[in-house]
Specification:
5-stranded mixed β-sheet; globular; about 160 residues; alpha/beta
Amino acid sequence: MSGIRGKNTKPEIALRRSLHRSGLRYRLHSTHLPGRPDIVFPSRKIAIFVHGCFWHRHHGCYWCSTPSSNSEFWNAKFEGNVQRDREAAEALRGAGWRVAVVWECGLRASSTDDTVARLLAWIRSGTGDFESPLVRRLSSDCYGNSDSTSGRTRGH
């Protein structure tokens, strides 16, 4: 897992390019903020996290699967990631920041424009928090719970 990047991932770079093209300027990976957000707008008090669907457990996403081998390890790893994400977002909100979570699936080629348009509208609105929508639903969620309409599961 040491080869897994935490910064400058393809989805993150795609989002940064789109935001820059839209005329917005930002800071990257602010170490003084909880959770070290990927993109920060200090003057607007906005912190944006770009989460991978697999690592951060995007509930119901097609790309959120659980490895079948060593499942105890993986479940603990994923639970720790989700808890850390929750704590960072709560700390930021408590400090008066607005928090956005942009999921990796929303930054795939077919969805990038829509996701960026929604994010830009949210940034300019000045209200609440933001989470990019699910792009492709799986017949079972990333926790292995099957959808009642389908007996199939992926990656289990």
